[in-house]
User: What shape does this take?
Amino acid sequence: MSDEADPNREIVIERLMERLEAFAVGIGLDHETTRHIVDRVITDMPLASDDDRLARARNWMPITSA
Assistant: This one.
C-alpha cells in the first residue's frame, strides 16, 4: 500500500502541522513549505514517533528558510 492511499497520513500531517505552526511562522516559513517538509519527514520516517518526526522537521526548517 502506498503512502498516498493511507487515510491516516492526512491525520498525521495535520497533527504535526499544528505542533509546528508557531515555530514555522517564527522563522518565516509559509504553510505550503512547512507542509512539504512534514510530508517529506513522514515519507522518510514512516515508523518513527511524532516526537522524532517533529525533531527532524525542526532541524530542516531553518535550513529551508535560509
Observations:
- The chain is about 75% helix and 0% strand.
- The two ends are 36 Å apart (CA to CA).
- The chain has one domain: 6-65.
